[in-house]
Amino acid sequence: MNPLTAILTLGLSLSLLAPAPSLAAANSGPIKIGAIFSVTGPASFLGAPAAKTAKMLVDKINNEGGVNGRKLQLILKDSAGSPEKAVSFAKQLIEEEQVLAIIGPSTSGETMQIKALCEENQMILISCAAAEVIVNPLAKHVFKVAPKDSHAAVLIYRTMKDHGIRKVAVLSSNDGFGAAGKKQLEDLAKAEGMEILVNEVYDKQATDLTDILTKVKSQPGVQAVVNWSIVPAQSIVAKNMRQIGLNVPLYQSHGFANRKYAEQAGVAAEGTLFPASRIVVGDELADDHPQKKVVTSYKQEYEKLFNEDVSTFGGHAYDALLVIVEALKKAGGPDREKVRQAIEGIQGLVGTAGVFNFSATDHTGLSLDAFEMITVKNGKFTVYRK
Amino acid sequence: MDPGNLALQYFLSGITKGSIYAVVAIGFNLIYSATGVLNFAQGEFVMLGGMVAVTLAQFVPLPVAVTGAILAVAVVGCLLELLFFRKLRHHSILHLIIITIGLSIVIQEAALHLWDEKVRSLPYFTGNEISSVRVFGAAISPQVLWVLGAVGVSVAGLHVFLRYTLKGRAMRACSSNPEAAMLAGINISNMRTLAFGLSAGLGALAGCVISPITMTHYEMGGGLAIKGFAAAILGGLGNPMAAVVGGLLVGVLEAASVRYLPAAYNDVSAFAILLLVLFVRPHGLFGAPAGAQVREH
């Protein structure tokens, strides 16, 4: 347990000693927001920046007087990437804490485990994970703020087509993120006129991928490699391709949008192409770009406070809170059903991942243009221009 | 690629993986030879070695950082033995093994708090991320040669130590017959401490040389320990050279499996063959049959 959770849990257990809050009592005191992030564990690079961001933003909102004159209280749980823990924390947040809404979890696997639970208990869930299945089929109370896998896959395929690439090798990790991406790439291949020649899944703890890449190299006609994972293998794949002299372009998923992985791959990452939201290239945005202000201010605050680069994943927590705060303002108070309806009415809300337009049928709110094609140049992320 | 070069390339990727398993397996073996304990925290020693070296490398040249990491982790290994095992020496081997499992979790959590959840790595010892050594039509990262070098040095060093030095012989004596060793004036507890320190140091060396290839993060130990353990079992426990052959074999089997089957099956094929070997030779490929080295534990 890290110090943060320890303090929060302590606060939580103390608050449990107080009589259970009735609905009337909920009209005063702070508004409770639950958060489930994988702060530690294999998906910590998603959850850790998200938890830091959520804490930072809640502090900031409270210092500025809160929402509608009431402070926010963040109740943060570390799921360590385990769906079982996510479920028990979700129950705790719903039954004991009676929070207004839950933000997170960080991974699609965890989100899917608690989707039905939240829907049954009429608990608003704003997931920070990417998979399509979170919002399709639609659940009344479940939203997500991370861009869709399918949009990433479409953008990758379209960029390839611009380069005359038609035949690809698809590599993915054997976890939820990899499996979801693999499915999107397979499903969309035909519509986008692409042919998948090699389609391999590797262990998420893989330490070396030269054997799989040898297979790709031995397959005549492969014009590019797409790797879909969120694990360190993203760096390994880039290094191994260059080491064995597989000289075709490497495309990665939006999971690559963490500078750490580009750093770890060093010169091997040069020229890697991947879709990501504009937060990773905030400096390059034109001053009149609608996202410029949000992205720059988040980036500056985060990097000043935590002394590390922002990633898209922390940005998702920022957006999730932003959506709740916006809906709270519109609903006028923490009435869960009113807040839920207010979320569905949000139009043109500028977040770190893009401009959100929710509706009763669209719980993602982001469109294809939330993604920008990014490339690595001299170790830095930069907008890809043909 | 022509078929010959292709086969060679698969073989070399097998060697790359296998060298990683082998270098981890050696550490497993030493503690086992000296104490009869299977140390499931061995993967954590590997992780600690990488972590400490990456941290030191920010301030001192790479060779110094690696040496420092090996020494530091060796000290950690000794301390762990003093703290957790010394008082328990009359307990069964099983107790001690369970303690190592507990230790592995504790070390992992400690590393998470001392450092963080991020992935880091040492620079390549020779060349960089894209350099490779050409072997006919195939290629291999120069770092793999460093790993194989570390394997060679460890095995040779251990061989000399265990066969030709008094301390090494005493260590083997403790393993084969603790009571007799004690009667001969050997301090068993100190020998055990030494074995833990040495294993931890060997693990740290492994963690440093594989860091550029696999990268280092606080959770890497578990996966490595499983593969290293499999390698040690396949080769035959208690023999460093057998562990190396076992490790390389597991790696090459995995790579060969990728050639013919979807990559998702490579663990399945490697472990299926491991099981087959163990059915035929329960003591591993090169291990002595159980009857030949009766343990008095």
Strand tally of chain A is 14
This entry's quaternary arrangement is: heterodimer
Strand content of chain A: 15-25%
Q: Specify the CATH class of the largest domain in chain A.
A: Alpha Beta
Number of separate strands of chain B: 2
Chain pair forming the biggest interface: A-B, 40 and 45 residues
By DSSP (H or I, 4+ residues per run), the number of helices of chain B equals 11
- The main sheet of chain A orders its strands as 2-1-3-4-5
How much helix is in the residues of chain B?
A: over 70%
CATH superfamily of the largest domain in chain A: Response regulator
- Biggest beta sheet summary of chain A: 5 strands, parallel
Helix/strand order of chain B, N-terminal first: HHHHEEHHHHHHH
**Which sequence of SSEs, written as H and E, runs from N to C of chain A?**
HEHEHEHEEHEHEHEHEHEHHHEEEE
Report the end-to-end length of chain A measured between terminal Cα atoms. 47 Å
Mean pLDDT of chain A comes to 89
**Segments of chain A where pLDDT lies below 50 for 5+ residues?**
10-25
Give the count of helical stretches of chain A: 12
Helix fraction bin of chain A = 40-55%
Question: What report would you give on this structure?
Answer:
- The complex is a heterodimer of chains A (386) and B (297).
- By secondary structure, chain A is α/β, with parallel strands linked by helices.
- Chain A folds into 2 domains: 3-148 and 294-366, 3-Layer(aba) Sandwich (Rossmann fold), CATH 3.40.50; 149-278 and 371-383, Rossmann fold (3-Layer(aba) Sandwich).
- Chain A contains 12 helices and 14 strands.
- Chain A is globular, with a radius of gyration of 21 Å.
- Chain B is mostly helical.
- Chain B has a two-stranded antiparallel sheet with strand order 1-2.
- Chain A binds chain B through residues 2, 39-42, 44-45, 48, 174, 200-203, 205, 207-208, 210-212, 214-215, 217-218, 232, 235-236, 238-239, 242-245, 260-261, 264-269, and chain B through 1, 6, 9-10, 12-14, 16-17, 20, 112-113, 116-121, 128-132, 138-141, 210, 213-215, 217, 219-220, 223-224, 254-255, 258-259, 262-264, 266-267.
